[in-house]
Amino acid sequence: MMSINKKIINILTKYFRREETDEERKELYTWYDQIDHSEAISQTKINDIQHRTKERLLHSIQEQSSKKSSIKPLWTKISVAASLLLISYFSYNHFVTGDKYRPLTDAQLAAISPGANKATITLSSGEIINLDNLENNQSMTVDNTVIHKDLSGQITYHLKQQDNKSSRTNTMQTPKAGQYHIVLSDGTKVFLNAESKLTYPENFGSGDRIVELEGEGYFEVSKTALHSRFIVKTNWQSTEVLGTKFNINAYKNEDAVKTTLAEGSIRVSPHEQNKKSIILQPNQQTILNQHEFSKHQVDASNVIGWTRGLFCFDGTNSEEIIRQISRWYDIDIEYNKDKNPITYSGKIPKNLSLDKLIKLLNYADINAYAVTNQKNERKLIIN
Question: Which of 369, 372, 356 is nearest to 110 (CA)?
Answer without folding.
Answer: 356
